[in-house]
Amino acid sequence: MTLDRETKLDQQLNGHPILQCLNPASGSVLKELAISSSEEVNEKVEIAREAAAEWRQLSVRHRAKFIRKAQKVLVSRMDEVVEVVLSETGKTEFDGIIEILTTLEIMRFNRKMAPRALAPEVRPLGLVVKNKRGWVHYRPHGVVGAISPWNYPLIQPSILVVPALLAGNGIVLKPSEFTPLTALKMKEIFDEAGMPEGVFQIVIGSGEVGKTLVESSGTDLIAFTGSINVGRKIAVSCAEQLKPVILELGGKDPLIVLRDANLKRAAGAAVWSGFHNAGQTCISVERVYVEEPVVDEFIRLVTEMTEAVRTGDDQAVSDFGSMTTETQFRKVMAQLDDARSKGANVLKQDEPQAEGMFIQPTIVTDTEVNMELMKEEIFGPVIAISRVRNEDEAIEQANSMKFGLNASIFTRDKRKARRLASRVQAGNIVINDVETNYLCVDVPFGGMKQSGIGRLHGIEGLRSFSQIQSVIEHRFGLNKELWWFPVANGTKKLFRVLIRILYG
Ligand code: NAD
Q1: CA separation, residue 421 to residues 21, 381, 388, 457 (Å)
Q2: Does any ligand 1 atom lie closer than 6 A to the CB of residue 2?
Q3: Which atom of ligand 1 is nearest to the CA of 445?
Q4: pLDDT tens per residue across span 102-132
Q5: Domains of the chain
């Protein structure tokens, strides 16, 4: 077990140019990588810019063919990639397979949709300008600086890299300092698929390297997925540079259970969403609001299902993996201590904890709003269950925080659920289900409130990596427009008549 991983990392980053990649479940050193210097970051941005100049000239269909090849290579090298993911995250084998599945779905959707989503559109124009023709074009930004977190080391970089490339950009990715090996494996896969040299670059290191990428004069768009705190710093830096930015940030997602819900399904959803990937998912359920008449039965079901979760350090059979970072491990423990000290009921499984950074699946009841776990994202295997009098109180509680990423509503009355969805302040709503919206890549994904700016997935996601350009073309060979100098005598009268006819 390695509880001094971050300390080691800090030491390394203070002047030592080497990043040690560690297995969080065992503490063993997997590999040592050179940390990218500022010069190297800027150089890679420039290489990507030069390569992107040719890449953008290819048709979208042509670019999509490379993604199709990469998709095939990923399928053929699936086991090797899963092994790397497991080794640097401590995930279970099934969570590793989910990384592959979701990434393939991201590749499939984006490559198929890109030719349509990024094609120039002809826009019909108003009567006054009938002698013009108008188009909307989706042009690449240039070089995208992408920064990703550790919790899904393949999915999170892919959701930035794939649409950015399809939109004709070059890309420089800085993966999390905790999971660079998966990103390097991903690059190998793109290289094997024949991606033109230089278009896709990776830089290695922690926040300092990310900061250089944001501040590098060569990046034209920053696409960031990570915490609110870092997202805010990046937003400030981009604001100063007037550089566009996409931010996919943290959540503290509510699940609302109404009295008429299928309680077994709702409880199963809460347990799976709260605990899979050891709760280290931006859209995992952290807060559950249950209507009073069914709350006791709901807690009974959740407790029973939690007891059935297979824990332990055998990644092949366990439902439940290790925490990936020591900071996260400590943060979860501190929030649980805080909740306990303020009177919450913290229910844990009795089974002994495995060696390593494992935290047992934990249910918390009798929560109060002053508890840290009811204020901040916990990002660990903990669900807090609160009772509410009615649906209005459930919505009020769900909306009571700065976060607005995902939310779930469980009720048998689907009309009511759709109505309530419009009152929940979250970018993504799931009715009688949890988290599946992330696999529904046709629909946009992103946060309201402080959970983010911009959208990934869907047509909107592809267009997030494009600059919109409108082109207006004059159609006929007239020498002048009516409003150009000199304005003819009858023009004022003509315009008055036109205004009355068109807008009166
Ligand atoms: P983090 O914000 O600490 O780090 C994310 C990335 O930013 C890392 O690569 C890190 O090295 C880099 N970074 C740190 N400081 C930087 C700086 N000043 N400038 C530029 N880059 C910097 O987040 P994390 O701990 O890696 O990931 C967990 C967080 O990510 C959680 O809050 C989770 O909810 C969020 N997340 C959100 C989504 C989403 O789609 N909304 C998806 C996954 C994770």
Answers
A1: 42, 26, 17, 20
A2: no
A3: 40
A4: 999 999 999 999 999 999 999 999 988 989 9
A5: 38-249+457-467 (3.40.605.10), 253-441 (3.40.309.10)
CA 248 to ligand 1 centroid distance, Å? 9
The finding on whether 377 has its CB within 6 A of some atom of ligand 1 is yes
Mutate-to-test residue for ligand 1 from 41, 91, 147, highest number of ligand atoms within 8 A of CB = 147
pTM of the model: 0.95
| Cα 479 to Cα 488: distance, rounded to the nearest angstrom | 14
214 Cβ inside 6 Å of ligand 1: yes
Query: How much is the pLDDT for 2?
Result: 42
Share of the chain above pLDDT 90, in %: 88
**Phi-psi bin for 94: left (phi > 0), alpha (psi -120 to 50), beta?**
alpha
Catalytic residue among 88, 99, 105, 282: 282
Separation in Å, CA 439 to CA 109, 117, 361? 10, 19, 24
Determine whether the shortest distance from the Cβ of 226 to ligand 1 is under 6 A. yes
Taking residues 214-243, report their average pLDDT: 97
Q: Is 19 in the pocket of ligand 1 (CB under 6 A)?
A: no
Cα 451 to averaged position of ligand 1 atoms, centre (Å): 12
- Tell me the pLDDT tens digit for each residue of 423-467: 999 999 999 999 999 999 999 999 999 999 999 999 999 999 999
Give the dihedral sign, CA 391/392/394/398.
positive
Residue 28: count of CB within 10 angstroms of its CB? 11
The yes-or-no answer on residue 21 being catalytic is no
Q: Please pick, among 46, 215, 248, 286, the residue that the annotation labels catalytic.
A: 248
Task: State if residue 206 touches ligand 1 by the CB under 6 angstroms criterion.
Answer: yes
Q: Residue 151 C-alpha to ligand 1 middle, in angstroms?
A: 9
**Catalytic residue check, 88:** no
Predicted local confidence at residue 1, as pLDDT = 38
Distance from Cα 250 to the centre of ligand 1, integer Å = 8
Count, in order, helices (H) and strands (E) of the chain. 16, 18
> Are the beta carbons of 191 and 128 closer than 8 angstroms?
no
Q: Residue 386: what pLDDT?
A: 97
Closest ligand 1 atom to residue 150 Cα is 26
Beta strands 245-248; 452-453: pairing state: antiparallel
Lowest mean pLDDT among 15-29, 90-104, 471-485: 15-29
Average per-residue pLDDT in the chain?
A: 94
Q: HEC states along 403-416? A: CCCEEEEECCCHHH
Give yes or no for residue 4 having a pLDDT over 60: no
Percent of the chain clearing pLDDT 70 (strictly above): 95
Q: Which residues of 412-439 are buried (b: 16+ CB within 10 A; e: fewer)?
A: eeeeebeebeeebbbbbbbebebbebbe
pLDDT of residue 168: 98
352 confidence band (pLDDT: 50, 70, 90):
very low
- Which residue is associated with the tokens 């079901």? 301
